[in-house]
């Protein structure tokens, strides 16, 4: 069923009231909320409800205040005579360039409900990809954080108690114990500097990443990291193919699609590669050859894209590649967690166990001397 985007005859509200929700809507909207809104809007439009009524109903039922404020602002813009795409473009905190361009293509082609369904599917898959990468990072980060906290507590509270005990007994300390005692003594003075240095390094890294050169350097380093780098590259390829395939299947021209894809790549290396491909296509080349020459995308990707381009089914081929690499990410994340779990547990055991054993070594020596007498 074709979408209905015409504005029904309604009494327009005053401008002062239209500006009311903007202060809250300036906050970013979570992709999960956006996906639910898009799916519900597509169903309502497909059912034949007028657009303004759809937005009004969704705004009332939306539990997230930021999303509700954005919907209300869009509804008021449409009542004032704007198109849906133009109204969405003014709420960039909720609707990005990809979203607004696809909606504009849907409005122009009279298939807004279909475009919104594709958008909701696209956003849901994006959320899934991000959660997979996050799960791959959270586990090792959590284990290492717990290990650091346990070590600090042992060095700060437990080791000084043992040290006073050894001094009172006049025990001779072996080398491992002396090292742990030295670390414990140094921790008391170095802890403020360590905490300050940690937060200072994080702040400087964010400032460096905010620059064009820094972002390119950091993103390039992440792609080259062992284990996690391969996953990030597969995520980037899946996102590129899914984004471009969704745009092309929605009627967005190839050059415009590449321009939007580069801005939503999420990685400076991929963004530069896509911009390079777009520049070469403007000169009359096909997409497959310059994509291969970037050295960023796997050869299989450029070959399959070339096959899709020659058969006139580029959007279909891009979506198939995206599905393949999304499954690859699933397998890679599961494999990474399988490898990391025993390694991190062993690391935690060696560190904590080494400290505990080193503190008991003088006691073993004292016990052996007492038994010999």
Brief overview, please?
The chain has 373 residues and is mostly helical. It has 16 helices and no strands.
List keywords for this structure.
disordered N terminus; 2 domains; 16 helices; 373 residues; Receptor-associated Protein; mainly alpha
Global Rg = 29 Å
Span from first to last CA?
97 Å
What is the CATH level 1 assignment of the largest domain?
A: Mainly Alpha
- Kindly report the CATH topology of the largest domain: Receptor-associated Protein
Total number of helical segments?
Answer: 16
Give the amount of beta strand, in percent: under 5%
Q: Give the total of beta strands.
A: 0
Helix content: over 70%
Biggest sheet layout: none
Structural class: mainly alpha
Domain module count: 2
The CATH homologous superfamily of the largest domain is called Type II secretion system (T2SS), domain F
H/E element order:
HHHHHHHHHHHHHHHH
Return the average pLDDT rounded to an integer.
Answer: 82
What shape does the CA trace take? elongated
Report the uncertain regions: 1-25
CATH architecture of the largest domain: Up-down Bundle
């Amino acid at each position: 069923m074709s979408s209905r985007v015409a504005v029904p005859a309604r009494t327009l509200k005053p401008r002062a009231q239209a500006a009311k929700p903007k202060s809250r809507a300036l906050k970013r909207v979570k992709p999960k909320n956006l996906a639910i809104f898009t799916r519900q809007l597509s169903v309502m439009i497909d059912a034949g409800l007028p657009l303004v009524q759809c937005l009004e109903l969704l705004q009332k039922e939306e539990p997230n205040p930021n999303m509700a404020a954005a919907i209300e602002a869009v509804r008021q813009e449409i009542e004032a005579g704007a198109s849906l795409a133009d109204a969405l473009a003014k709420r960039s905190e909720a609707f990005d360039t990809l979203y607004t361009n696809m909606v504009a293509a849907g409005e122009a082609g009279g298939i807004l409900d279909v475009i919104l369904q594709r958008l909701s599917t696209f956003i849901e898959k994006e959320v899934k990809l991000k959660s997979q990468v996050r799960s791959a990072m959270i586990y090792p980060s959590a284990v290492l954080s717990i290990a650091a906290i346990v070590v600090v507590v042992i060095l700060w509270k437990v080791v000084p108690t043992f040290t006073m005990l050894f001094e009172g007994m006049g025990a001779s300390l072996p080398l491992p114990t002396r090292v742990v005692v030295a670390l414990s003594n140094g921790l008391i003075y170095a802890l403020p500097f360590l905490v300050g240095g940690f937060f200072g390094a994080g702040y400087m890294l964010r400032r460096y990443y905010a620059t064009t050169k820094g972002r390119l350097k950091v993103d390039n380093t992440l792609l080259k990291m062992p284990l996690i780098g391969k996953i990030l590259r597969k995520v980037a390829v899946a996102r590129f193919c899914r984004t471009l395939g969704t745009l092309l299947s929605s009627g967005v021209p190839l050059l415009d699609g590449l321009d939007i894809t580069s801005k939503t790549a999420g990685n400076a290396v991929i963004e530069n590669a896509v911009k390079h491909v777009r520049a070469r296509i403007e000169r009359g080349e096909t997409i497959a050859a310059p994509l291969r020459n970037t050295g960023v995308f796997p050869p299989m990707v450029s070959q399959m894209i070339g096959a899709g381009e020659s058969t006139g089914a580029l959007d279909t081929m891009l979506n198939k590649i995206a599905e393949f690499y999304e499954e690859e990410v699933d397998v890679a994340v599961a494999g990474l967690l399988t490898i990391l779990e025993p390694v991190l547990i062993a690391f935690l055991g060696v560190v904590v166990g080494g400290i505990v054993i080193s503190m008991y070594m003088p006691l073993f020596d004292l016990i052996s001397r007492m038994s010999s007498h």
